[in-house]
Design brief:
By secondary structure, the protein is mainly alpha-helical. It is 36% helix and 4% strand.
C-alpha cells in the first residue's frame, strides 16, 4: 500500500507575483522584535486575502475561503473537512 500524501488542486500552480513576493515576511536574520514580525505577517496576510477576494469577485466566485481553526489553513468553502488536518469546518 502506498501511504504517500496526494494533494489535489482545482487550478494549476502559478508563480507568486513579484509584488506578493516582495511583501513576504521572510526572516533572514533573527527578528529584533516579535511585535514587528507579527505586524508584518498580519499585514501580508490581510493584503493577500484582500487581493484574493478581489480576484474571486472578478471571476464571479461568491464564497470566501474558510479558515481551519485547528491548523490555520485556508480551505475551499465547498469542503466540509480541512484539507490538511481533516478537522470539520
Amino acid at each position: 500500500m502506498d501511504a504517500r500524501l496526494t494533494i489535489l488542486r482545482s487550478k494549476a500552480p502559478v508563480h507568486v507575483s513579484t509584488s506578493v513576493f516582495d511583501r513576504l515576511p521572510i526572516l533572514i536574520d533573527p527578528p529584533t522584535s516579535i511585535l514587528r514580525t507579527v505586524e508584518k505577517a498580519t499585514t501580508f496576510i490581510e493584503t493577500t486575502l484582500a487581493e484574493e477576494l478581489e480576484a474571486a469577485k472578478e471571476e464571479g466566485v461568491r464564497a470566501r475561503a474558510l479558515l481551519c481553526t485547528e491548523c490555520n489553513t485556508l480551505n475551499d468553502p465547498r469542503d466540509r473537512e480541512c484539507v490538511v488536518c481533516s478537522a470539520l469546518l
